[in-house]
Amino acid sequence: MDNSHQIDNMVWDVDDREIINIGGSLSKLTFENQLEKAFKGEGADFPKEIAYTAGMDHWNKIADSSYQTTDELEIIERTASDIVSAMPSGTTIIDMGAANSAKYEAYVRAFLEQGKTCTYAALDLLGVSLLDQLDRAKEKFPEVTCVGLWGTFEDGDDFFPQIPGSRLFLSLGSIFLNGPDSVCADRCNAFVKNLRPDDRLIIGQDGPRGADSAMSHASYQTEAYDAFFTRYLRGIQEHAGISADPKKAWTVTSKMDHSMHYFEVIAQEPLKCTKFGNFVVEDGTAYKMFPSWKRGERECHEIAEAHGLDIVTLGKAANSGMRQYIIKKHEDRVEV
């Protein structure tokens, strides 16, 4: 992996299959500080980033079989051609949080079918995952230049101005608006700055439905989720210096609080964090892990519009609350 690029002097001059370090090498320090605050109850969430380095293979299996994934793919297949028809040849597709997702493929196919060129840029925090994703992309689309952006979404915000021409940003899988209101506001404000007149941002967002609550809880009671959480908890224990069997040290329960879903994780024994000043997590201490918000169509529109973005609903899944939206700057009306 080429880590020679520096954030302050980057230019969009990359080779096919190149991985650009836009901040990924610095992420470990950030999430370890966040993890200590989470254990101590100092207002921080447990960092999802550790899931990318501990248990990513398990998470990919979960995502591949999720109703959110299949429902969103159905919307993408229906709408990708129309989206691409409004984009010029030479557009860069920026797949934010790419992991092993195949959701971008419909957009690449649409560019090629319409006789247009495009570049695929996968953004992810895990460098190994990026390499694998680019290999898969090149196997499917050998004629398309594929680039990896190694870093966080915030690193991407700093780097995106370096990418010339029109950009089609993909934030799929209920990522962009699934955080608390303050996080949604931050993401919207960032994209008010990121988006150029010819750019488009496609987001997926699951919305609340009565049936979805039962569906969600059931989807978490699987061997795949058990394996993922065991590996994730082992990962945070390693970062904190906790010596314990994660399957015995914690219980994990799926919970809903109105439109917020989270996992309640409860310590089953005293756990000493030797890397965090020997702080002890007492038996019975409960944490909320991976909180995420389901937001309906009206709320998604209100949030985007309140922060200077135009938003249009692209489609809704027939069997769940999953929707897709297209977003651009307010000064230019969205046309699909």
What is the element layout, followed by pairings?
Layout: E1 19-21, H1 27-39, H2 49-53, H3 56-65, H4 67-85, E2 91-96, H5 105-113, E3 118-124, H6 127-140, E4 145-150, H7 153-159, E5 167-171, H8 181-194, E6 200-206, H9 210-220, H10 223-240, H11 246-249, E7 250-257, E8 260-267, E9 271-273, E10 279-281, E11 286-293, H12 297-306, E12 309-316, E13 322-329
Parallel strand pairs: 1-4, 2-3, 2-5, 3-4, 5-6
Antiparallel strand pairs: 6-13, 7-8, 8-11, 9-10, 12-13
Helix pairs in contact: 3-10, 4-5
Structural write-up:
This is 4-dimethylallyltryptophan N-methyltransferase-like protein. The protein has a domain at 13-28 and 59-210 and 295-329: Rossmann fold. It is α/β, with parallel strands linked by helices and 336 residues long. It has 12 helices and 13 strands.
H/I helix tally = 12
Helical fraction: 25-40%
CATH superfamily of the domain at 13-28 and 59-210 and 295-329: Vaccinia Virus protein VP39
Could you please say which CATH topology of the domain at 13-28 and 59-210 and 295-329 applies here? Rossmann fold
Task: Tell me the series of helices and strands, N- to C-terminal.
Answer: EHHHHEHEHEHEHEHHHEEEEEHEE
Principal-axes geometry comes out as globular
The strand count comes to 13
Q: Tell me, what is the CATH class of the domain at 13-28 and 59-210 and 295-329?
A: Alpha Beta
The biggest beta sheet is recorded as: 8 strands, mixed
Q: What is Rg?
A: 20 Å
Structural class: alpha/beta
Mean pLDDT: 85
Q: Estimate the strand proportion.
A: 15-25%
Distance between the termini: 38 Å
